Structures
1.
Amino acid sequence: MDDNIEVILNTEVKQKDPIKAVTIAISARALFDMEEEHELFLTEGPEEYINYQISNEDIPLKEGIVLPFIRAVNMVNKKLLKLNPEEKQLFEILLLSTHSAEGGVRIINSVNYYGLDISKFCFLNGKDPSKYLKSQNVMLFLSACETSVCNALKRNIPAALMLQQECATAKEQLKVAFDGDSVLFSDETDNVFREKGLEEVIKYEKNLEHVPIGEPPSEGRNRSVQGHAQEKQKRYVNDF
């Protein structure tokens, strides 16, 4: 591991089994609304950013777009453990910040304020997160930084760019939507659509409706996230 990366274990949380757990990494800017702090970093520099975070370390950060999702993930873990206290196939959450731990106390305090079950706080000191994600066997990365998401995808780590939105998401129910083309399955149908159009896609799908769709490059990670989903599924064509 890079010597510049600082990792703080959350001693208030029971650490998950790294072999069996489904590891999700989230950026601090996705978990919390830190746009004002980020703007300060861009305009005034890292020193002013750190000073601001230290002077406001007892003021919780505002909820970000990913926070309701993490609440729902935590809820799933609790229900799984209630059914079986020895359950190992749990979700593990890692929180990443590209800044140093010096200005990270406010982030940790905010996690505790919202009562989130996050196993590790990883402060990267300006390093690209994608290399660290690979070393931690991360199966999903959620970030507010487009560059970080693109770098993760280049390393075959499933990742998504999180954008702020007005509508609230459910806190007591975990709902995840996967794009069937190129995510759950291969991009073969998507390629037909781009090259020949929708009518040819419909013909292509009808001709192969009894043939299982191929797996994408990151099939192992996707299978872990899907859980016990069947590998062979019938093709459905949405005629619109």
2.
Amino acid sequence: MIEQLPEALILKILSSLPTKTVLSTSSLSKEWQSRWKSVPKFEFNSEDYESEHQTFPEVVSKSFFSSEAAVLDCFHLTCGSDQVDPVDVVHWIDTAFARQLRPLVLDFISDDDEYFVFTSRLCNCDTLETLKLGSMIIVDVSSPGSMKSLKTLHTYAWYQNDESILNLLSSCRILEELVVGRSAEHTVSFFTIEVPSLKRLVIYDDNSCTEFFGYTIVAPSLKYLKIEELRCPQFSLNAPDLVEANIAGVSSGINESLASVRRLFLDLSPSEVTLFIFPLDFFVLLSQCFVCIVNNLISCIDS
């Protein structure tokens, strides 16, 4: 029955399946031997490829070499750092970039502290719209690249130095969403986020390293801010158009103006509340809300 469907719909169905399943369809019939080659999506997980005949890098390389898709809608790579050669990974990414890649997701797993290095060379793809970097990656960007279509960046990576952060973000001219996840990283002193186009920022940071001093954020277009597990001593925020803030687990002082915030969600312990300094406008707004609540209660009692 599936043969009766339009070819475009068949490819859409195949694009929703894991790449391993898509590759296996080549054995269905003669008509299906080459159909997988037009699927514009590659999602590889090394745990799914345990074969005596082919290694995981051989499977990925052969798939890229045989693919006939002119445009790639996604390239998602999950593997152990000790299972692939970094040279092969860079070659796969270069191949995906040449085919107008849109989302790129890199997630490495290693028990031996082997990291994949994300360099300036990989910051050049003008069709890339989404970039997600996992925790076993070191961002070493010595100069800004060009990712002029990138709107979404999720990074749980380590950074070679402060400049690598600046250069990575400078490569994203229209970035709108940034998710930063950090833990025990000692290579950065200040995490500077200066992105005029940024609208949504999420920070998960339980890094208590004494060499890390804090965040400097300049985001004039920022509308939504979420912070969890912030332990650094300094936090500077310049976001005059901020509408909503969700703050939890903060053990450092945030004394920036939140006068423009319309919705504020706090999940703080009593000790953390003392570190959170609210602007005068916030207390005025809070008192007005309290008066309204009291008046409504009195009205309900009278009625």
